Amino acid sequence: MDLSRTQQDYIKAIWNLDQLDKKAKMKVVADILLVKPPTVLAMFRQLSKLGIISYDKREGAKLTVAGRGEAEQLIRKHRLIETFLRSVLKIEEPLLHDEAEKLEHVISDQLIMKIDEYLNYPSTDPHGSIIPLSRVGDIQYALHEVEPDIPFKIIQIPMAGKEKNYCIDNDFLPGSEWKIKNVGPKNESFLVTNSEVYLAISDHMAEKIKVTIIRR
Ligand SMILES: [Zn+2]
Hints:
The structure is a single chain. The protein has helices spanning 5-19, 26-33, 37-49, 65-89, 95-103, 109-118, 161-169, 203-206, and strands at residues 53-56, 60-63, 140-142, 152-156, 177-183, 189-193, 198-202, 210-213. It is of the alpha+beta class. The protein has three domains: 5-63, Winged helix-like DNA-binding domain superfamily/Winged helix DNA-binding domain (Arc Repressor Mutant, subunit A, Orthogonal Bundle), CATH 1.10.10; 68-136, Arc Repressor Mutant, subunit A, CATH 1.10.10.10; 139-213, SH3 type barrels (Roll), CATH 2.30.30.90. The protein has a six-stranded antiparallel β-sheet with strand order 3-8-4-5-6-7. The protein has a two-stranded antiparallel ribbon with strand order 1-2. Strand 5 and strand 6 form a beta hairpin. Helix 1 packs across helix 4 (65-89) and helix 2 (26-33) packs across helix 3 (37-49). The two termini are 23 Å apart. The model has no long low-confidence stretch (mean pLDDT 90). Bound molecules: zinc ion. The site of zinc ion has 4 residues, from helix 4 and helix 5. Zinc ion is lined by residues 78, 82, 97, 100.
């Protein structure tokens, strides 16, 4: 889900309060984010419509399953970024946290997976906080959005015609695992492999193929 930085900050604030067993009431969230309560209420309404939270005046805002997934992906990004900046660039606080606060909103799911892999899947960040597990596996991408060398599982192939037959004839089927080996000039074609055979996929076809990223 494409959420704004402001929406993401609310989601994180609600998640953090929940971790502390505190209710995310309007006034509490307003104090954390340094905004006025009516602003919080407007955002609570917006996030409710998006299915990110449920809101009740007495209970405060509560993350839905989708909201929790969004929050954990953000926290995961923040903590992996801090781990990366500390171990590779030896960056210290307060810069470490400040940079992670900014980068967590813009870094792609693909890049954070690369960083996770580079760091050999750490379970804690430099502060000893647990890094939430990836939920990336649940997110669907079109094939052309996947970076080379990232393993993915096919969810859906083109529904009809030559393209459907091409997939079936080549065992490029839902449930099977592949990765992109090469991208042609101007992203016009993709060479994919399951480490046994190689298959060329046109950009037109790649847009109709839905996949999820495989997390080891
Ligand atoms: Zn931090």
